[in-house]
């Protein structure tokens, strides 16, 4: 059984044994390829959540209506990427073994790989729905295979062709887009067009849902390591998130790539916190 964090995300006050959802942060950004700082994302989201209400007028529900436990941030051996991924996998395994939904807050996007490894062991027919500005399909980044620029390619190595569904992609090198077109992954560039069809096709299949917050336009969300113009609005992302949670059998989830130091106004952290709140309420 995991211990409760001292400072919880707002409204996440359930005891572990009662919880259906377990929140945990992964303050890791050691493979960030441009601007570092996402290691501060989980604590920023948690601390700033108290600027939110527990009630969502969008969903007409309280976050306290659900049973959510906040286990805090993992203590990580920064500098040892493989061990970090193992720590994430171990935490996700514990949560899954106890019949609960793992909800991870990054950190850089590579953290997804550790959680996906654990979820895939339990659900061999796993699919991934991936919202992002970046394809993250490189074979390596400057010779390094464990990079946030390669995370979805590493996930593909476990899942195989046709089981990764990407939306909002608007950046990557040419080889990534060519590789996607060969049928390895299903990529929707620039928008969420086709999301409802994807949800319908997946039906009761287990889905891991990963959200890189830089899918948002940097005018909405400047506090990220690799901002990319041409993104979606908050309400477009919010509606797409609700569609996935309500339409799919989501068995694991993460939200990542807030780098709060690049937005001293706090707006990016507020955006991230609100999305996390709405996700948690939708899952409850």
Describe the protein's architecture and organization.
By secondary structure, the protein is α/β, with parallel strands linked by helices. The protein is 34% helix and 18% strand. It contains eight helices and ten strands. The longest helix has 17 residues, at 81-97. The protein is globular and about 45 Å long.
Question: Which terms summarize this structure?
Answer:
284 residues; alpha/beta; Arginase, Chain A; eight-stranded parallel beta sheet; two-stranded antiparallel ribbon; 18% strand
Task: Summarize the SSE layout with pairings.
Layout: E1 21-26, H1 41-48, E2 55-56, E3 61-62, E4 68-73, H2 81-97, E5 101-106, H3 111-122, E6 127-131, H4 151-159, E7 164-169, H5 174-184, E8 186-189, H6 195-202, E9 206-212, H7 234-247, E10 249-256, H8 267-283
Parallel strand pairs: 1-4, 1-5, 5-10, 6-7, 6-9, 7-8, 9-10
Antiparallel strand pairs: 2-3
Quick synopsis:
By secondary structure, this protein is α/β, with parallel strands linked by helices. The chain has helices at residues 41-48, 81-97, 111-122, 151-159, 174-184, 195-202, 234-247, 267-283; strands spanning 21-26, 55-56, 61-62, 68-73, 101-106, 127-131, 164-169, 186-189, 206-212, 249-256.
């Amino acid at each position: 059984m995991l211990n409760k964090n001292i400072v919880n995300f707002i409204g996440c006050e359930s005891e572990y044994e009662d919880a259906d959802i377990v929140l945990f942060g992964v303050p890791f950004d050691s493979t960030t390829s441009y601007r570092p700082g996402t290691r501060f994302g989980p604590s920023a989201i948690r601390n700033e959540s108290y600027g939110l209400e527990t009630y969502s007028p969008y969903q007409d529900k309280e976050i306290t209506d659900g049973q959510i436990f906040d286990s805090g941030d993992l203590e990580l051996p920064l500098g040892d990427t493989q061990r970090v991924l193992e720590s994430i996998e171990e935490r996700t395994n514990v949560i899954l073994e106890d019949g609960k939904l793992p909800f991870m807050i990054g950190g850089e996007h590579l953290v997804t790989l550790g959680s996906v490894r654990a979820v895939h062991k339990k659900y061999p027919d796993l699919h991934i729905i991936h919202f992002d500005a970046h394809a993250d399909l490189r074979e390596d980044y400057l010779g390094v295979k464990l990079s946030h620029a390669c995370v979805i390619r590493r996930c593909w190595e476990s899942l195989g062709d046709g089981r990764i569904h990407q939306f909002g992609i608007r950046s990557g090198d040419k080889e990534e887009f060519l590789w996607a077109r060969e049928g390895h992954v299903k990529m929707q560039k620039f928008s969420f067009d086709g999301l409802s069809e994807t949800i319908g096709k997946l039906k009761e299949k287990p889905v891991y849902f990963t959200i890189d917050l830089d899918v948002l336009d940097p005018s909405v969300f400047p506090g990220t390591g690799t901002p990319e113009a041409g993104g979606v609005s908050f309400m477009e992302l919010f509606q797409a998130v609700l569609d996935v949670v309500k339409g799919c059998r989501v068995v694991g989830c993460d939200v990542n790539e807030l780098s709060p130091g690049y937005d001293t106004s706090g707006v990016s952290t507020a955006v991230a916190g609100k999305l996390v709140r709405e996700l948690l309420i939708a899952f409850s």
